[in-house]
TrEMBL record:
This is UDP-N-acetylglucosamine 2-epimerase. Residues 23-343 form the UDP-N-acetylglucosamine 2-epimerase domain. Residues 319-353 are annotated as: Disordered. The keyword Isomerase applies. Belongs to the UDP-N-acetylglucosamine 2-epimerase family. Keywords: Isomerase. InterPro entries: UDP_GlcNAc_Epimerase_2_dom, WecB-like. GO terms for molecular function: isomerase activity. It holds the Pfam family Epimerase_2.
Length: 353
């Protein structure tokens, strides 16, 4: 079987790692296409190195731009790549512009399309990620769902016959890396909150961004803010100082350092999807700076709380440790195996295209 994976943004490299390893272990041919959506070395290259992902076979080098320009630049190049490689499956990951571009290209060329991390919904249509997910799920021949809740969302949209529950590949990577990870020198020895902010809904409106940074700056413990390039760019554009009050800014961390830092932190404050789950897996209480989350299991189990009102941040971030749990809503660390099995079995029962 020949699989062509399309990736482009940081969380997709993490998801790609266990899938690439499993495809190779099972002797399948794997072509990796990197769109170039993320291009800084610390947003891209370090993940390939640390997670031992083979170098991309094709790099589209699209870089940054408005949604239409960025997605369009990917689309313009993808046809030739897909036609040259003629894969049995195009595999797209998550919910970024790289995901939807890969999906559109595949369906237009009648190539079988599989979506890993299908069925997540925030039900917030203002999020670019929500459009990307819904469009990709409905284009896909195979929806690879990470959780039972995702399976139910797909069923509610009439996609149950194309859906397979495989678990969450981020659990595979997180548990594997956690065994050896240690915190980086850039985090303090005592109590601290590890923070990341990058979502468009928190960064693009200057009033909102200032309020979020003010909230972090006044927390009653040191806050280590790993600054995503979007945050740095938007803060500079709006004249908002990031390094003040409780906040120390550090560069984005490589994956093993991030896992080590999450485990060492007393609290995580974030608007990232992946980090909410990593905090849960590593049992660090998380506070999510959003009005909703796709990862509702983390809330139900008490390990995550939504900061619906920024005034609640100090209370939420210093809340007592939640009750421990043995629940495994994100699988047992074997989602990549289940993914490759689903691809193999669905291919032999031949999708419609
Ligand atoms: C993208 C995804 C988001 C995901 C995030 C993970 C979409 C719509 N959003 O958001 O779902 O959670 O990746 O990080 O696809 N930049 C750099 N260097 C880089 C990459 C970005 O400087 O290597 C800067 C540029 O100023 C760019 C901005 O960050 O304009 C935003 O990057 P972009 O790829 O458009 O979206 P993200 O915010 O990273």
């Amino acid at each position: 079987m020949k699989i062509l994976s399309v990736v482009g943004a940081r969380p997709q490299f993490i998801k790609l790692a266990p899938v690439a390893a499993e495809l190779t272990a099972q002797g399948h041919e794997h072509v990796i296409v990197h769109t170039g959506q993320h291009y800084d070395a610390n947003m891209s290259d370090v993940f390939f190195q640390d997670l031992q992902i083979p170098a991309p076979d094709v790099h589209l080098g699209v870089g940054s731009g408005s949604h239409g320009k960025q997605t369009g630049a990917m689309l313009a190049q993808m046809d030739d790549v897909f036609l040259e490689h003629q894969p049995d499956w195009v595999l797209v990951y998550g919910d970024t512009n790289s995901t939807v571009a890969g999906a559109l290209s595949a369906v237009k060329l009648h190539l079988p399309l599989a979506h890993l991390e299908a069925g997540l919904r925030s039900f917030n249509r203002r999020m670019p990620e929500e459009h990307n997910r819904v469009l990709t799920d409905h284009a896909a021949d195979l929806c690879l769902a990470p959780t039972q809740v995702a399976v139910e969302h797909l069923a509610a949209e009439g996609l149950d016959k194309r859906t397979v529950l495989v678990g969450d590949v981020m659990t595979d990577v997180c548990l594997m890396v956690a065994a050896q990870a240690s915190p980086p020198a850039s985090v303090p020895d005592g109590d601290f909150a590890l923070a990341t902010i990058h979502r468009a809904e928190n960064t693009d409106d200057p009033v909102r961004l200032r309020a979020v940074i003010d909230g972090l700056a006044t927390l009653p413990l040191p806050v280590v803010l790993t600054a995503h390039p979007r945050l740095v760019a938007k803060a500079a554009e709006h004249g908002i100082e990031l390094s003040r009050g409780s906040i120390s800014v550090i560069d984005p961390l490589d994956y093993p350092s991030m896992v080590g830092a999450v485990r060492r932190a007393s609290a995580v404050v974030t608007d990232s999807g992946g980090l909410q789950k990593e905090a849960f897996l590593l049992r660090t209480p998380c506070t999510t700076v959003r009005t909703e989350t796709e990862w509702v299991e983390t809330i139900d189990l008490g390990w995550n709380a939504l900061a619906l009102d920024l005034a609640d941040l100090p209370r939420l971030v210093t809340r007592p440790q939640p009750r421990d749990t043995s629940a495994t809503p994100y699988g047992d660390g074997h989602a990549a195996q289940a993914t490759v099995k689903a691809l193999t079995e669905s291919r032999s029962s031949s999708p419609e295209r």
